[in-house]
Amino acid sequence: MRRKLSQIIPLALIFLVIGIFIGIFLTSLNLPTTTTTTSTVTTTSSVATTIPPTTTTIIIKTTTTSIEKYCMKNGTDKKLSLTEAKQIAMNSECSKGKLTETHVCNEITGTWWINLNIESPPICSPACVINVLTKQAEINWRCLGAQ
């Protein structure tokens, strides 16, 4: 039993040292946008008099990048981000439904079209239409045929 324990303890210490070096390397990176996660690792030995318990804190930083989408009306310098369009929609009649992730920019009309889950006739496919210039939103029911 002592022989196995004497083989396990050095391996545990090697992994602990590797973890510390990785932690030091990651904390030395200077990332623009970071999220910090702190983990505490405690190692113990069954031979407490030889190797005392050790606590190591490892800090890992990760970079997150988000890209904003914009819609512009042709022939103008006016643009509207998708995030702002969704905010406008939720403060309009479109709030009667739920916006989906499906969206498209019509640069000719200068409008964001965001699909809308709302009770409607089966021949309709409603969307919330947000105007880039006026920043107004309305529901376009997009119904096919006569009702």
Structure description:
The chain has two helices and eight strands. The chain is α+β, with helices and mostly antiparallel strands and 147 residues long. It folds into two domains: 62 residues, no CATH class; 71 residues. A hairpin with a 6-residue loop joins strand 3 and strand 4. The protein is elongated, with a radius of gyration of 29 Å. The termini are far apart. About 4% of the residues have low confidence.
Nutshell version of this structure?
The chain is built from two helices and eight strands; from the N terminus they run αββββαββββ.
List strands and helices in order, with pairings:
Layout: H1 2-28, E1 34-43, E2 54-63, E3 70-72, E4 79-81, H2 82-90, E5 98-106, E6 111-117, E7 127-131, E8 137-140
Antiparallel strand pairs: 1-2, 3-4, 5-6, 6-7, 7-8
